[in-house]
What does this fold into?
Amino acid sequence: GAVVSQHPSRVICKSGTSVKIECRSLDFQATTMFWYRQFPKQSLMLMATSNEGSKATYEQGVEKDKFLINHASLTLSTLTVTSAHPEDSSFYICSARQTENTEAFFGQGTRLTVV
Amino acid sequence: AQSVSQHNHHVILSEAASLELGCNYSYGGTVNLFWYVQYPGQHLQLLLKYFSGDPLVKGIKGFEAEFIKSKFSFNLRKPSVQWSDTAEYFCAVNAGGGFKTIFGAGTRLFVKA
It folds into this structure.
């Protein structure tokens, strides 16, 4: 299958700082990328959907000013957690797909720990 | 809004037992359906998918799933599980405006050797 690379895989940051997570589709052009958050022993919760060149669509309850998403190119989307707090500590996963009728491929995830 | 329901949160089986994991979704229109697996410490991998055609879908590692439109179901099956199938299994549905992919709560499968 296609490859989606997420970077970094782990990050520890101080409370109040911002952290950027990158999601790249390595061998295909991703018109849509998704950002999920996974709490321990729970499912993936969709945070937002981003289409290349347009603003991200956030799910209900997700603060768009806190979780900034940029999808500037067909191979790169970034999630920036601004003014991070310990409750933002979680596992963040991105996925990317080429079209509406193709499967999404997942990155390996980023473990964020805010201290 | 679409939603996905997985009936079993934890399943424990012995090797060679048969497996069936339930998945129901709520959406009246066209859907794409997926089962993903997450092995301990690894990222999500696609087991199988249904877009159209034969409602009985064969995936990797001996898994299969049947799409029953009238029941809004997409249950995952495997005739004989192995210890290496121990993992978490997620049903996912891709539908609606924007075709965003929504996941079920997941089922943790533990296979006893």
Residues 8 and 107 of chain B are 6 Å apart (CA to CA). The mean pLDDT of chain B is 91. The interface with chain A takes residues 32, 34, 36, 42-46, 49, 51, 90, 94, 98-106, 108 of chain B (CB under 8 Å).
